[in-house]
Amino acid sequence: MLNTDRFVQSGLDYLAQRHVLTYMEDAVSQLLESREDISQYGIARFFTEYFTSVRQGTHILFREFSFVQATPHNRASFLRTFWRCFRTIGKSGDLLTAKEYHCLLQLLCPDFPMEITQKAARIVLMDDAVDCLMSFPDFLFAFQIQFYYSEFLESVAAIYQELLTGKNPNTVIVPTSSPGQHRSRQALSEGTPLDGVEATAFCQCLESLCDKSKFSCPPSAVVKEVLSSVQRLTFYGFLMALAKHHGMNKALGALPDKTDLLVDPRMDQELEKLITQVSGLSISSSTNSNGDTVNLPPRLSPRVSSPWRPLHHRRKMDMESDGSTEETDSSEN
């Protein structure tokens, strides 16, 4: 059945909600930057390829961080790409440090900030030493909420700190709260950082934050469920509970369930093809029965349905050597 709710929005509101202007500005900027190359096959094809890549989620590859985090769709696309590119790390059971995970992130986004990686590591390690080893699934789910909900978590940290010191967060107003509830919030000064804050008061503040914020927030039902299961909790305890919550991951929709995190049949098929190609090259390099060396066939490119790449990135990569180009393309897939 056709959803008529979308017709209630004005045109400008719809464009703003879908961030259409962000993509139009980016597309026009790339069009002007690469107009000489584009003249070879036309503007219409350029816009077709650009918005096809946006739909497929490949438009964030090798882009600057300011663009990668510009829209919720960009963030979800980056999370999905990171998972697909480095899923084999989790499949092999390797454990990496925060710095090593950050290096992987920089392969997709060269100026990705270390601060976000460190904050994700603190969620996994509960604010312990961030140079400890972490599994790929643990880091990925923590990184998901830290990256996608970064503005929300900054506000949550400020609210938590005020509650911890016994203050009533001035920026959070809860119309349904009674004077007794305000007094109970002020009484939290008796708590210590190890005890955390009182979950009910924390939940009330976060409900108000989610209702009034203009940035992405987790589903209120998930937040309530996490906070209703305990009486007190710490900041990182709350973030860890969010990262592990099944409903949290399902609502965001960027990553599969934890049971399916290391399963990607399509990617496995492509890897098997590459292994077969490499094995075929090795066999063909052996000598024949007469002792003559068999000539190798032309080297096969590992590119498999290579996604669209902004034209200025194409020119940059064309200047690189063949080996580096193939390595980059394989990371895309």
From TrEMBL:
Question: Where does this protein reside within or beyond the cell?
Answer: Cytoplasm, Cytoskeleton, Microtubule organizing center, Centrosome, Centriolar satellite
Q: Does the keyword Transcription apply?
A: no
Q: Where is the composition biased (Acidic residues)?
A: 320-333
Stretches of Low complexity bias are at 286-309
Any single GO BP term: cilium disassembly
Q: Please state the protein's primary subcellular location.
A: cytoplasm
Q: Which GO terms describe its molecular function?
A: protein-macromolecule adaptor activity
Keywords assigned by UniProt, alphabetized: Cytoplasm, Cytoskeleton, Microtubule, Phosphoprotein
Domain of life of the native organism: Eukaryota
Could you tell me which residues belong to the region Disordered?
A: 286-333
Which InterPro entries is this protein grouped with? Answer: CSTPP1 (IPR038968)
UniProt similarity note: Belongs to the CSTPP1 family.
The task this protein performs is described as: Regulator of the tubulin polyglutamylase complex (TPGC) that controls cytoskeletal organization, nuclear shape, and cilium disassembly by balancing microtubule and actin assembly. Regulates the assembly and stability of the TPGC and thereby modulates polyglutamylation of the microtubule, which antagonizes MAP4 binding.
This chain's protein is named: Centriolar satellite-associated tubulin polyglutamylase complex regulator 1
Q: Which organism is it from?
A: Salvator merianae
